[in-house]
Amino acid sequence: MDAHKLTAELFVAPQILPADMSALRAAGIRALICNRPDGEGNDQPVFAEIEATARVAGIEARYLPAEPGKVSDDQGAQFAVLMAELPKPVLAYCRTGMRSTTMWALSQTGKLPLHEILDTAQSAGYDLKGVVRRIANGGRLPVDAGELTHEVVIVGGGAAGIAVAASLLARSPGLDVAIIDPADVHYYQPGWTLVGGGVFDVRDTVRAMGSLIPRGAHWIKAAVAAFEPERDALILDGCRVVRYQQLIVCPGLKLDWHAIDGLAESLGRNGVTSNYLYQLAPYTWELVKNLRGGRALFTQPPMPIKCAGAPQKAMYLAADHWRRAGVLDKTEIGFFNAGAALFGVPEYVPALMEYVRAYGIHLNFQHALSAIDGHRRIATFARTNPDGTKDFVQREFDMIHVVPPQKAPDFIRVSPLADAAGWVDVDPATLRHKRYANVHALGDAGNTPNAKTAAAARAQAPVVAHNVLAACGRGKEARSEAHYNGYGSCPLTVERGKIVLAEFLYGGKLAPSFPKWLIDGTRPSRLAWLLKERILPPLYWEGMLKGREWMVQPELVDAVATKEVVS
Question: Which has the closest alpha carbon to 238: 99, 41, 87, 404?
């Protein structure tokens, strides 16, 4: 925990964890204010979990969330009210502490001189010059005076962002590239399924962000608040402005924990878990290995979601453990899928159904989880009947693995870059924005109809790198454009030691990377397991994130000829 003192009564900090509560209490903190909306990060505990552990420690907690860079005067006033009523000292926190500091600053407008607000924030490590400029400018964002300018700006330092930055710099070492991301750490999220299955240690799935930023790239450690594509600019948390010649958008997606009533309050206790959170994947394994019989439920929300196979991967690994432990016959397993099919590409379904039957799994399609009562251990599902009518069914559970509904991040959904559904609106082949020619997107936030997997981002990165350099008029890229074919991969862990390796393109067309005699993707394979367990992690860290485009060279089309045909 990294707390910064603003006043004798107020400290601000980046995201805190439930495990910090004892130390906070020992340090004398008597109240918390959370200024970070739930679901911003995969390593972020929901506020209900913080509130529950704070209550046990004798600390009061309040929830006053704000989107990055969009702290309002009204929220500043609400912050002042909370500060007046809560016991002191108070610790306010968000992702970095910037939103909390901004709320404090707005609450002090008219009470303290501006220079004193600035100096106090600066002494705590937060630069509020942009916020003060906004106040002085009557609330208008001052986009006409950019503070930073880069040739290529990348929003997001996840798998897609780091990979495309590395590909750009490998192709054009002198390129001026900046990556915007506020996170201190980077996660290998495909490993969390194996953490939940007792195969990986969760600590092996995380590295410091600073160690992964490609050499030659600038790292702007901040959150994006808004886009101004008509002015080739974006606004950061704290109201700083960044200008660009080319923009690449890849911030990932948002896990909507609050879309399911009671879920946020139940996570991490009473048998409720999810491999989609860093701190909960180990809890999944604890539940699995300690279950000696009972009812285990696994859920899948409506599409799109990150890795469509992940919900059932967790289920198969759990069932395999219970079989090996001799308690499978005492365990009732239910799979509740909001969709109508076990897997979107039918060629892989027969192999999966063999495991469904072998494990005795009860399949429930058109069942969307709508509520969780953790104390009573009851899950409520909205069921869509064959005639289109809907009703609700309840199931008791001893453990439940939940996959939350997922959507584009808030700052994307409300931006000019978004389509009607909130996703970045790009051409599915070139990944270029349909309205802004100097904007590209890749990864989970785009509206391309491919599976949202790390394998897809790995295939998209060289496509975007090539097309951005072509747009910059650099080298051989200027005469051609790269096309993405929709490739995605989903290694379905059907048991410990075997995987059904699903690989496909747009439209569900099979796209195996290996000859059938080596790995038949439609059948469970031990070699595919070794690929997932031993080869893919180093391929991710040392290949994909280093700009090594092994087996993902994009299809190139003569851009001049294409333009002539179109014209």
Answer: 99
Rounded to whole angstroms, the Cα distance separating 461 from 248 reads 10
Indicate the residue type of 194: L
Helices 73-85 & 98-107 angle (0-180, nearest 10): 90
**How many other C-beta atoms lie within 10 A of the C-beta of residue 105?**
24
Beta carbons of 98 and 65 less than 8 angstroms apart: no
Measured distance CA(227)–CA(242) in Å, rounded: 10
Can you give the residue ranges of every domain in the chain? 4-136, 148-253+408-566, 258-406
d(CA 361, CA 297): 10
Cα radius of gyration rounded to whole Å, the chain: 24
Q: Do domains 4-136 and 258-406 have the same CATH topology?
A: no
Whole-Å CA distances, 64 to 51, 77, 93, 103, 234: 13, 11, 10, 10, 25
CA 36 centroid distance within chain: 15
Give yes or no: 490 in active site. Answer: yes
Select which of 239, 250, 472, 490 is catalytic: 490
Which tens digit of pLDDT belongs to each residue from 174-212? 999 999 999 999 999 999 999 999 999 999 999 999 999
**DSSP category for residue 230:** G
Structure tokens, 399? 């453990």
Q: Based on the number of CB atoms within 10 Å of its own CB, is 56 exposed (0-12), middle (13-18) or buried (19 or more)?
A: exposed
Closest to 45 in 3D by CA, of 269, 280, 247, 205: 280
Superfamily of domain 258-406: FAD/NAD(P)-binding domain (3.50.50.60)
Q: What is the CATH number of domain 4-136?
A: 3.90.190.10
Residue 117 has phi, psi (to 5 degrees) of: -60, -45
Q: Are 315 and 401 in contact (CB under 8 A)?
A: yes
| Residue with the larger pLDDT of the pair 131 and 552 | 552
**Per the structure block, which two tokens stand in for 352?**
């999966």
Give the integer Cα–Cα distance in Å for 76 and 100: 9
How does pLDDT run across 72-91, given as a tens digit for each residue? 889 999 999 999 999 999 99
User: Residue 404, preceding bond cis, omega within 30 degrees?
Assistant: no
Cα separation, 309 vs 502, whole angstroms: 9
Alpha carbon distance 47, 40 (integer Å): 12
- 148-253+408-566 CATH fold: FAD/NAD(P)-binding domain (3.50.50)
Q: Where are the alpha helices (DSSP H) in 124-179?
A: 129-136, 159-171
Q: Using a cut of 0.90, tell me whether the model's pTM lies above it.
A: no
What is the DSSP track for 367-418?
Answer: EEEEEEETTTTEEEEEEEPTTS-EEEEEEE-SEEE----EE--HHHHTSTTB
What span, in angstroms and rounded, lies between the C-alpha atoms of 503 and 30? Answer: 53
- The one catalytic residue in 94, 250, 307, 472 is 307
